[in-house]
Design goal:
- By secondary structure, the chain is α/β, with parallel strands linked by helices.
- It is 35% helix and 26% strand.
- The chain is built from 7 helices and 10 strands.
- Strands 3-2-1-4-5-6-7-10 form an 8-stranded mixed beta sheet, with helices on both faces. Strands 8-9 form a two-stranded antiparallel ribbon.
- Helix 1 links the parallel strand 1 and strand 2.
- The longest helix is centred in the C-terminal third of the chain and has 25 residues.
- 5-O-phosphono-beta-D-ribofuranosylamine binds next to helix 1, strand 5 and helix 6.
């Protein structure tokens, strides 16, 4: 399975996807920020990076990936991209709680006892597509926005490659030709997820 990663920021998830690739290949990075951490990491990891000018659909088409992975890409994908390609995103909250920005701050203000991250299929909304897998942690009394962000990122770095490896193996499958799309899991995967503390 060939994967193109889209990222705009620090790129820690991009790097985790590259390092965690057992059954898929990250063929390239597309970024809308020429000087971001993701582009620097791509160089260090010898992954080709492409800087987005204006035609994202055209760029993705050139790469003809089996899957597009959004790892902190700070733009909303147009419906024509989402319709043509299987796009999955990692979001730093237990969706459907806290779609959008400032998730850690909002979770702390709300006094949440649990927080985490979600890998989901991208649909035409913002952080609304069907959930594929989640990983959660217990919020500590002394957690700050920064400590929570760092702890959630640790979860992200394990969850995201695990989902991609299992999509590539067919242990997770996505039926995109029905509405709403359906996420299916092999019989054995639920117990593996359970042992890792992931929620399917
Ligand atoms: C992550 O928290 C991810 O969940 C969100 O954007 C952040 C990207 O972080 N979509 P990084 O650039 O991968 O370090």
């Amino acid at each position: 399975m060939n994967v193109v990663v889209l990222a705009s920021g620090e790129g820690s998830n991009f790097e985790a996807l590259v390092r965690g690739a057992k059954n898929y290949t990250v063929t390239s990075l597309i970024s809308d920020k020429a000087n971001c951490g993701a582009v620097r990491r791509a160089k260090a990891l010898s992954i080709r990076s492409i800087i987005l000018q204006d035609n994202l659909l055209g760029l993705i088409k050139q790469e003809s990936p089996d899957l597009v992975a959004l790892a902190g890409f700070m733009r909303i994908l147009k419906p024509n991209i989402v319709d043509e390609f299987c796009c999955i995103n990692i979001h730093p909250s237990l969706l459907p709680k806290y779609p959008g920005l400032d998730t850690h701050k909002r979770a702390l203000s709300a006094g949440e006892h649990e927080h985490g991250c979600t890998v989901h299929l991208v649909d035409h909304g913002v952080d609304t597509g069907p959930k594929i897998a989640q990983s959660k942690l217990t919020v500590k009394n002394d957690d700050t926005e920064d400590s929570l962000r760092a702890r959630v990122k640790e979860l992200e770095h394990t969850l995201f490659p695990w989902v991609l490896n299992n999509l590539s193996l067919g242990e997770i499958s996505i039926e995109r030709d029905i509405s709403p799309p359906k996420i299916c899991y092999s019989a054995g995967l639920r117990s593996e997820a359970n042992s890792k503390g992931f929620i399917l």
